[in-house]
Amino acid sequence: MSHPPTPMHDLLRYATPEDLVRVALPWLRAGLDAGEAVLVACAPDTAARINAGLGHDQRLLLLPQAQIYRHPSDAVTAYIRATSQALATGADRIRLLGEIDFNAARCEAAEWLRYEAAANQALAPYPIWAVCAYNTHTLPSWILTDSERTHPGVMDAEGRSASHRYLQPAVYLRSTGPDPVDAIETTTPVLHTDTMTTLATLRRDLRAALAACGHTDQSAEALVLAVNEVTTNATRHGTPPVQVRLWSTPRRSMCAVTDHGAGFDDPFAGYLDTPITATSGRGLWLARRLCHRVNIGHDPGGGFTVRLLMRH
Amino acid sequence: MHTRHDDGGGHTWDRHVLLLHSSERYRRAGLAKWVQRGLDRHEKIIYVEPVSDPPSRRLVAVLTDAGIDTTQAAAGQLKVLSATEFYQPDRLPALMAQASAEGYPGMRVSAERSTALSVLTERNHDELEQDADELCRDQPVSVLCQYHTTQATGPRLATVAATHPSGIHDELVRIAAGDDALTATGEIDITNADLVGAALSAALRHARGVFRLDLSALGFLDVGGATAIQTASQQFRDAGGRLQVAAHGGPRLVLDTLAMADLPNLILTGGHR
Questions:
Q1: H or E segment at A112?
Q2: Which of A41, A125, B82, B117 has the greatest number of CB atoms lying within 10 Å of its CB?
């Protein structure tokens, strides 16, 4: 297959592992033959089959799926890092076959799809041809539909074609919200502050409320961290009063932080990888790393709310 | 002579220390603890008070509110001076000599920054601060400077942090310096990340080799605080110095998620709780 001229982020749908290998092998082999860096980040079983199919070519780079797909932003970071390393060794392009393990990460599946959309932006500066494998037998249909919306290209046995359902990342990210009200919000809040005073007081109150509900482990502290970041942003960029509500059940806690400012309208907020040399804008990125879900939006009655959902 | 580590915790109020406050409540509480430390050590305690202060702000009132029984103090142990009386050339060494002659093992003196500025220029007071630094290092004297947070912003913060290497008391965090080490206890967030950065910068200015940032007693660290640590240590690490950061729990989670260990010459120790 020749290099497609458009951004290289393709969807590969497969029904059986054999299908996946059948479609991917020629593409990977072509990359090796062309002197490109070739990476595979799939489940161990698939990786073994591909490795065997390529004759255990020493040039093939196998990345541990468990490590890369711990969180969507880990995957993006790993892709970018691998690309930089490959470029440094003299390759001018890289091909990467990856498969998300939807069960592995702390965040919900819908977040993965949002990161797929954001990846089109994040990977744009790099000469990377990423192919993402999606299993049509095991994955729910909504994930398969959204996988078409988030990948510009589709690769199958016949070759490569454009995805007719592809949406520009900003459009896709805007189209996935606002989410319906989570059932947890219909319970009585365990903390309700209409006028936040200090961040230190808020953290103390959050910890106490979570502890009273039996949450004292790292997931509780992670939620306090995320809420602190979001509330710091609200106090710096938003308009007072800042209201905080916390709902908690044995399995999940949600915190909503509302201010009365104009909010912001960046669909990529918190999604784009910030390099370790960046020194601003990482609060929301951290919140997305730690939480199961982060929703941001304007409320019908006025106000701007960030909702953070944590699984315990 | 002072030893570096005195009995449990009290040493945080010894030598040249900064009390950085944004509330009267916190200032009064800190001042009371500082005085109590002096009483416990049988030191001569000098307080420089503005003549224009209302009675509720006088040292006597502060101590009474804190439940400190000043009648227990020896006659003359607690002495209040006006700004004009105190800020005279060589006054501090003279007071120290007098205290020694009176049989006190040591002396401590405190004033608010605004009190000093009622008779001194900013520059004169800054110079006095540096002199105090030297005295506190070698002599049995402690100096507590009380600054409101509005008096320690921007470039002034760097100066203030550098002239109080022994320790800084902030409402949320306490910073103490040791040999090639800095300890931060309490919580770091947007209200004091700049302060922590300034203190770390100052401590690293003359550091070489390995420097230890001890966050093991830190209960909270946000992204801004982690960034302040990164920025404040950049020059030191770029020049080959190695920053060892001990942290666990929430602070460690933040440092790990931000991949701080990937920064050149930054080592994380302490592990997860």
A1: helix A109-122
A2: A41
Residue A59 half-sphere exposure toward CB, CA atoms < 13 A: 19
Whole-angstrom distance, CA of residue A279 vs CA of residue B197: 13
- Spell out which chain B residues touch chain A, with contact meaning CB-CB distance below 8 angstroms: 172, 187, 189-191, 220, 222-224, 227, 230-231, 249-250, 253-254, 257-260, 262-263
Q: Which residues of B touch A236 (CB under 8 A)?
A: 190
- Chain B residue with minimal CA distance to A288? B257
Quote the CA–CA distance of A58 and B176 in Å, as a whole number.
Answer: 53
Shortest Cα distance from A294 to chain B (angstroms)?
17
> What CA–CA distances, in Å, run from A247 to A109, A216, A294, A300, B95?
22, 15, 15, 20, 60
**A221 and B189: CB-CB below 8 Å?**
no
Structure letter (DSSP) for residue A188: P
Residue B100 · residue B130 · CB < 8 Å: no
Give B-chain residues touching A216 at CB under 8 angstroms. Answer: none
User: What are the residue ranges of helices labelled H in chain B?
Assistant: 24-40, 59-65, 83-86, 91-101, 113-117, 122-138, 154-162, 193-204, 223-232, 234-238, 249-257
CB contact (8 A) between residue B258 and residue A279:
no
pLDDT string in tens for chain A (312-residue length): 555 434 589 999 999 999 999 999 999 999 999 999 999 999 999 999 999 999 999 999 999 888 888 888 888 888 888 888 888 888 888 999 999 988 877 788 899 999 999 999 888 888 999 999 999 999 999 999 999 999 999 999 999 999 999 999 999 998 876 667 889 999 999 999 998 899 999 999 999 999 999 999 999 999 999 999 999 999 988 899 999 999 999 999 999 999 998 888 888 888 886 655 565 678 999 999 999 999 998 888 889 999 999 999
Residues A270-292 as b/e (b if ≥16 CB within 10 A, e otherwise) read bbbbbebeeeeebbbbbbbbbbb
The Cα of B222 is separated from the nearest Cα of chain A by a number of Å equal to 7
B262 and A276: CB-CB below 8 Å? yes
- C-alpha to C-alpha distance for B234 and A295, rounded to whole angstroms: 35
Give the pTM: 0.90
Tell me which of A218, A230, A277 to substitute to probe the interface with B (most B C-beta atoms closer than 10 Å). A218
Q: With 0-12 CB in 10 A as exposed, 13-18 as middle and 19+ as buried, what is A266?
A: middle
Question: Among partner residues A198, A225, A229, which is closest to B253 by beta-carbon distance?
Answer: A225
DSSP A129-171: EEEEEEETTTS-HHHHHHHHHH-SEEEETTEEEE-TT---HHH
Contact A206, A234 (CB under 8 A): no
Whether A228 and B189 lie within 8 Å, measured CB to CB: yes
- Look at B258 and A224 and tell me if their CB atoms are within 8 Å: no
Asked if the Cβ–Cβ distance from A276 to B223 is below 8 Å, we say: no
